[in-house]
## 1
Amino acid sequence: MQALAHSVRDRLIERWHDTHQYFKKKDPKRIYFLSLEFLMGRSLTNSVTNLGIQDQYADALTQLGFDYEVLAEQEGDAALGNGGLARFAACQMDSLATLDYPAWGYGLRYQYGLFRQIIVDGFQHEQPDFWLNFGNPWEIERVHVSYPVKFYGTVEEEVLNGKKCKIWIPGESVEAVAYDNPIPGYGTRNAINLRLWAAKPSDQYDMESYTTGDYINAIVNRQKAETISNVLYPDDRSYQGKELRLKQQYFFVSASLQDIMRRFKDLHRSFDEFPEKVALQINDTHPSISIAEVMRVLVDEEHLDWSKAWDIACRIFSVTIHAVQPEGLEKIPVDLLGSVLPRHLEIIYEINYRLVEELKKSFGQDYDKLSRMSIIEEGAVKSIRMANLSLACCHTVNGVSRVHLETLKTRVFKDYYELWPQKFQCKTNGVTQRRWIVVSNPSLCSIISKWLGTEAWIRNVDLISGLREYAKDPDLHTEWKNMKRVNKMRLAEYIETLTSVKVSLDAMFNVQIKRIHEYKRQLLNMLGIIHRYDCIKNMDESDKRRVVPRVCIIGGKAAPGYEVAKKIIKLCHAVADKVNNDPDVGDLLKVVFIPDYNVSVAELVIPGSDLSQHLSTAGHEASGTGCMKFLMNGCLLLATADGSAVEIAEEIGAENMFLFGAKVDEVPALREKGTTLKGSLQFARVVRMVRDGYFGFKDYFKSLCDTVEDGGDFYLLGYDFASYLEAQAAADRTFVDQEKWTQMSILSTAGSGKFSSDRTIEEYAQQSWGIEPCKCPF
Ligand code: H53
């Protein structure tokens, strides 16, 4: 595997090198994509596919007595991210490369990626993912590309050419060393760079300690520096103002900006041209400190006037917000920021002062509004609102689906939207068909190419709609069903190896794989399964014959400190234990929890699924990208009208999916009803079964049951339960009619074109970044 990877890497490096020479020669405007997380998954299969050398490699390996697929399976995932946001960043890199955009990704090279989930007696345990144990053949260490990143210290005033200026005297310096990861495009020679920074001790400050004789402490401090890039935070929604996290953010932002500015200065003398050559994309609010850093460099180091520097900053930055709730937006306590980055705090205060002065011109003395819009949040813990810093500066604020943008405009950033409506744009997420069809479902890939008579859809996915014409063709149906069966067989073998549960290929494979969150409502899924089980238990043999057999597959990680989510995982296992061993049920129902869900598990599970579930309470899922992967793979969707599912319904027709539940605009009123809102009797019954210990662990599950009863049902499981069961029943009825099901499946794939990240990237390039393709000649 290592040898194979190094051989492929040689091909990659040639292209990556040529692409960068070409970019250097042409000097186009470049997009720099800053993200604290990238969930790349495996590289081998993706690289070999994008380079177009799979057949040659497979043949060569056969001659050497190896099997390409077996070797490919050996590769571990690069899991430098938590979930949707991070995987979306990875899809965007693939599209940027394929569409020949002059792009760079910048992030952190964590030594420990997302934890590995192991299940012991049905409980989640976390194990460290030391993914670099055997080295990473895909990266190139650039020992000579390194920058010092400073922290702490004080700010002093100095007079320079008769003008007062501030200078930051830092107290600590850490070296950022570049590790380059080539990202090949498909059907092009272009390969772009994902540059990840690792922290290494800097020699600068140590000398003093050595000479004062504090040898041991000097060494210990050197080692401490490396901890900055040690570990990825495993919780993707709540940030508790931790010093290490702030240091991680500033570390990668500072190194990236030094790199970007060095590249710019190699060819340009004046920062006036900076916005013509540089676009900076902030992926969620995590890299927002880059705004203060650009201001610091331009004002303190390049000695530009404040207003000139601010004008430049406002022209280069755009941001994408992924959160739906204001609580999901990062805040940093003022005391913490002031201690770690004292000069940046001053700069943020200055930005805020000028912002509030400007706001007063529009809103007068409306202090409530001013305080909501301020970058500084007063309160028990005075904090910096990183989202407001981004809103104040960025020329574009992107939402990730139409529903999400509406939420941003009408709730989360209402005041800002009223002031600057032109900044707000919708860029519905997408996923790359290269990984999610070509690599993970080669049989489907061949079918699509055969029926369209071309492989051009792999670069131009709009062509995939051409399948609609054949949606009723019996020959296509036969091929389609065979493809699905082979994929199900592969998945069934995987399930049996992992869990010892044998599943029937005739059953409907019904899947929910994603991070475990209350709003994603895996609990609703479980309660639905319990209801189904309960019904089967109460049936006579003739009724049982009419039941559509189901394999219910669930997978996902819970953040280590998220108790409710961990209880949901335990409930999955407790129900699985009972159901899978009940002779009354047999093949009619099986429940399987797939441990350690990650990108490569998704690549196996998605092509083998019949039905996928996207159950978020309406208004809570910003977009969702899992649903797009299932859609591409011809898997039917059972979903609430939330996030991108609304747009999917428009593309494929609502009649080709199973929609249910309260709508976004109904949710607030339903919540108001609070305790008066009772779930159905069926709902009460299944919750009672859990409460009464039917699946064991009575005391442990009590608090879980409390979350959905006694008026505390914030995510409206009780309210949506009846329509959820109805949607499930509709799926059963359709599954019995295999011709209809297959037709809907084909129409799903045919309607998935809009949800390619290629479309998303084109929109970003044209509407936000103002960049043009720069195609390296072959
Ligand atoms: O970002 C995805 C969306 C998804 C949303 C997710 C996300 C995270 O993964 C982490 C934090 C956060 O605020 C949002 O939940 O709906 O598809 C990519 O945009």
## 2
Amino acid sequence: LLGFFMILFLCFTPDKSDHCFPSNKSSSNIPWLETLNVDGYFSFDDTEHAAKDFGNRYHFQPSAVLHPKSVFDISSTIKYIFDMGSSSEITVAARGHGHSVQGQAQAHRGIVINMESLKGQEMRIHTGETPYVDVSGGELWINVLHETVKYGLAPKSWTDYLHLTVGGTLSNAGISGQAFRHGPQINNVYQMEVITGKGEIVTCSEEQNADLFYGVLGGLGQFGIITRAIISLERSPNMVKWIRVLYSEFSKLSKDQEYLISTENSFDYIEGFVIINRTGLLNSWRTSFSPNDPLKANQFISDGRVLYCLEIAKYFNLDEYDSMNQKTEDLLSELSYIPSTLFTTEVSYVEFLDRVHVSEIKLRAKGLWEVPHPWMNLLIPKSKISEFAHEVFGNILSESSNGPVLIYPVNKSKWNNRTSLITPAEDIFYLVAFLSSAAPSSTGKDGLQYILTQNQKILDFCNKANLEVKQYLPHYGTQEEWQAHFGPQWEIFVQRKSTYDPFAILAPGQSIFKKGS
Ligand code: FAD
């Protein structure tokens, strides 16, 4: 089995200086598409959009884009390709909202499926004792939020940004400040409808087709296309008390974060970020927040040091205002932040969850949203985080960073380890997200090349110091790297591929398996 996949395996190292692979724009390399009977339609001329993503660096032109109106459109397209056997080179990529950063939702000369076409299907909310929402895989999380709060309900686990699709984040993990308590989004799914690489429509859950269920969750789109998901809900609060405090020592921040994620009745959201001089964050971290003690807050001077911000939130309804404030004060009294840097605000629950969209609107207005995004996300074991912070924030990034650097721990005990997601082995690990934006055409410290070199320096340090780091939203070019990423899980990943997508038709942009060679 492994031998078979070695042949299929992609040692796919696209030219790093140019990730553009144009394609013949006519339908001629897939002539049968025009004869396939679908409820939606194929488009052949406006495929540029499908060759773009948020990363703005990879541009693989597909031959066609399917705008499905039904799951049968997707299954019959894949089945047709599957029936052509291993000699056909045609691949299929589900495209959610295209917010990958390295071409993961693209298919060079293949077919991209615009999953958002499916989202028109009705969202069904079950309000009983175990509430859930039954939603299309192409639905945006922001729409799930707006619809569920109408019933006083909401999903438990989120991403920081909600203009992403359900299928897109469930193919990765979906990690945010609630994951310490509820696990990532992939741990809050009851059931899915999936179309495999053979074109079969399969319902799967913990009880039914469990191997496919766990394989698809965090499976980087390799085993099936998620067309529906049933997601667990909880009662939604009306309001959120949102708090930011600063630390000048990383050890104090991490001690407090680890205390908070392990305490009963803690905050409902726990994150943090690094404030590196000259990023502009030094001035903006408290915009829209009010100081607890305005006089002392004005006296606070940073001295150009690297600072660390703990970001926490407590959910509440208006009739719980006093008890929420008391609980918040009690929790804050246990922490060691710089006292003059306590800043708070109160916003609606929807405003809080949709907070990054506000920045998106501002950045778009300045033409700063559609720039290259050489993002890097790392999962770092707790035992190695201080060594990591010392070298990365104290040395590699001590002078500049080109965007937010998030850092917060999560409890693995709250995560289901049967999914395809790969994490470090320790019970507590940190997510560290380097969310850089590159200035187009710059060759300076804000340019793409500089940021990529900095990312590589961080990775080299992690390898050299043996920090046992895992990449989140990983992207590799060689067999050795993918195998090292999966470690002991590699064999099961390969086995699932041979079971559910034996001709490696699905998600070619992940560059894990290559079709037809
Ligand atoms: P796409 O980029 O369209 O697709 C991603 C992958 O999933 C591709 O391989 C694609 O083929 C596959 N895929 C898409 N739809 C399906 C489907 N229905 N079935 C099977 N496979 C499918 N992630 C976090 O965990 N936490 C965060 O806080 C967070 N914040 C973010 C903020 C921003 C501004 C951005 C741009 C990204 C953020 N992400 C975060 C990353 C995000 O979760 C992933 O990039 C996710 O894949 C994007 O969803 P999408 O719908 O755009 O997927």
